[in-house]
Amino acid sequence: MKISRDYQSRLNYGMRVAYSGVPGAFAYIAAKRMFPEAALISYSNFDEAYKAVEKGECDSAVLPIENSFAGDVGTVMDLIFSGSLYINQIIDLGIEHNLIACDGASLDTVKTVVSHEQALSQCKEYLSARGYSTQVYPNTALAAKYVKELNDPTVAAVASDETAAIFGLKILASKIHTSKTNTTRFAAFSRTRKESSKAKKSSESFILVFTVKNEAGALAKTIDIIGAHRYNMRNLRSRPMKELLWSYYFYIEADGSIDTAEGKEMLRALGATTDRLRLAGTYQTRDTK
User: Fold this and answer.
1) Which DSSP symbol is given to 123?
2) pTM for this structure?
3) Residue 139: which residues within 8 A CB-CB, separation 6 or more?
4) What percent of the chain has pLDDT over 70?
5) Cα separation of 186 and 67, whole Å?
6) What pLDDT, in 10s, does the model give residues 101-155?
7) How far, rounded to the nearest angstrom, does the alpha carbon of residue 27 sit from its chain's CA centroid?
8) Phi and psi of 249, rounded to 5°?
């Protein structure tokens, strides 16, 4: 009966996509760009959004995996290693911050600016130059919601233009962040892995997570196998395993299709040098031009 109800729900309402945060947050924006026709379901943290897909409550979860300044999102990286979902899509979301406020506000009326601490930090040069005081909020969307409800021309928020539109706020100043290269990578997780299409194989990438045996040269052998099978490894990271002191797992992204005879042979060879090996996802590299 539950399967039947779920199926009918998909027919009536389409895909359900989980994300962590509130409408207007950058995770919401990323999910909307990945799945423009889907119903977006808010969860309070990464783990809950991920488990919603594992339990079948949602079809996909959109979560951040890396920021160009802050680095890896450790909680999500650990879910990639220990969880059961697969990454089938990755996008780079440029983070742009604007000064937004209610109707009647101007750059001269604003005295206080509220936002997430990282957003305030990234806009510190502009805010300091204007002499604004700052107040930290849990995220940029909640800060915008507060400004909307307060309706005070002396209080503004730092947030995206999409967030301003959602809450009906106006943009007083655009792109006030100091660095123009702040980018977050978001991944879409689902219960099944999407195999290679008939598209050009060189435009594909795959993700592996694994542990190696505690012996000399084990990691080097693993990397050599990937190179020997002519895959370009462009990302290698290590993360501590919480259940084992001073033990680590490794995360690799490489270019090329894994769903080939060469890819299958490489996975077999890696199985002999690793203690635990998981193909965590495949995705199409997007053309950014």
Assistant:
1) T
2) 0.84
3) 21, 22, 25, 116
4) 91
5) 9
6) 999 999 999 999 999 888 999 899 999 999 999 999 988 999 999 999 999 999 9
7) 7
8) -115, 165
